[in-house]
Specification:
Length: about 475
Amino acid sequence: MGLPLLKRLLIPLLLTTIFSCASAPERTVVPLELPDRFSTTGGLPLPDLWWTRFEDPELTRLIEHALSHNFSLKSAWDRLSQNEAILQKERAGRFPDLEFQGSASRTETHGGSGGTLNTGQQSRAFKRFSLGLTTRYELDLWGRIDSLETAAKLDVFASEATLHAAAMTLSSQVALAWFQLQEQYGQAALLEKQLETNKQVLELVTFRFRRGQVGATDVLQQRQLIESSQGELATVTSRMHVLNLQLSVLLGQPPKNRTFLKKPLVNMPPLPKTGVPAEVIQNRPDIQSAYFSLLAADQAVAAAVANRFPRISLTAQATTSGEMARDLFDNWLTSLAVNLVGPLIDGGNRRAEVRRNLAVASEKLNAYRHTFLEALAEIETALVQEAQHHDLITSLEKQLALSQQVLEQIRNNYRQGASDFLHILDALLTQQSLERTLLRARREALEFRVNLYRAIGGGWEMDPPGSEAIQTRTMAEFTQGETP
């Protein structure tokens, strides 16, 4: 290739490089319009450790244990460490490389008179020692190295936010499993109480049957009700075992049958202050993770664009050699070179890489917007569900009070022979069903509050697993019949 042709190829490329910009685009923090306020708000601000609002020491200990022992959360810590190592690797590109080479050789020559070998031939040995230092440094003219480092730094921020999002999810999962377990404990106690009541009614019906006041059908119906209660009790017992296993896994413990502490469901704490939507949404760790991932993708685009431009690197070398090791530092040979390397023909490889990174950035932007909308929907959904559920609980409490009055009245009528057994059976079924429904509704209300706390909560300071700042607890602290 002649020099004129080489100039015609390189000069336009260099001019394009000089007047081009490989910087990442600016991103706005809020990609969508937000409402001025949420539909409902409370008066108390939500603390970072939101589970303390329930004032349940056992729940607090369970969540703390899970945050330091759960293996999925430990995996999130490992991913954060990986991205921190990648950042350190990209930062190394800002500094020159320094390498050394050293060698030692020994050469022997043999020769005789007249060019023939004989017993009188002479031999000579030559020794050679050499030492060299080489350093290389790339001039980051187009910001490629800076973009790669910035992208790695943003990936670290995204991983840290993802870690906090995982911790938020884990803590809410523990709380939900704990409340579900306590509800099943309550359902079992309630069914046992109802079963005892049903047996007492069976004694009354049997007594009247023996006196010929009622038929055998009344006795059979009451026995069927008792069997139905025993079947429901077996189902509740099975659910308790399943929840025990699920909670053990969340706590990072082998799943096995154990009985956690039995406690009544906690009272509903006051509604938290939801705050301004823009501030609440941007405080969520999943939103922060999506945003940092978007910014990292923008930096990757800038790095891909800069990779299409020529690279200029400096290479410095110093070498020395001698027949003796002590002579190495007497004479040095130094050199300095400037290298220019630029793509001419690559089959569209670099251009395709730019298009790929642009598509990745667009994907991250859409994912960020979708996460934004989901966050708004989660908060509003939790607020609406809790408000409507409060009305449901109030109605169930009134229904239960009325059903108890109805049952007492029908019992009195039945004892006096003024009512048949079908009425007392229907009233009994209604009252017992309302008792179980009310308990389930109270647990669901707590779940809606957990969802609200998770939706509006942010992150909190955490220490890596194994840190002295984390207090480890044994499973015995959370189970009955065992001592710490």
